[in-house]
Amino acid sequence: MEDVEATLRAYRSAAESLQVLSAAFRAEALQKRLEGADDAERREVLAALAQDTETLRGLLERARALHERLQLASDFDRVYVSDDV
Questions:
Q1: Does residue 30 contact residue 48 with C-beta atoms inside 8 Å?
Q2: What is the domain range of residue 8?
Q3: What pLDDT band is residue 84 in, cutting at 50, 70 and 90?
Q4: Confidence category of residue 40, pLDDT binned at 50, 70, 90
Q5: Nearest Cα to 49, choosing from 69, 72, 73, 26?
Q6: Under 8 Å between Cβ of 85 and 70
């Protein structure tokens, strides 16, 4: 069961990494669109960048929460192992 959970975490992590890379490539493409864009296109590009920013913010929040859970689990393991000896 632990192997399945580890595999799922790895897949989730890879998917989140791909989302970050995708947002980076989109930001580069959107930046190129801004060059010489009219006002309407600028608003469209800025809206897309805002959406990507929110996506990345959500990923960062999930990463922080996961880090906290892993830290708590690690702390628990240290206490459990030291008490077990």
A1: yes
A2: 2-84
A3: low
A4: very high
A5: 26
A6: no
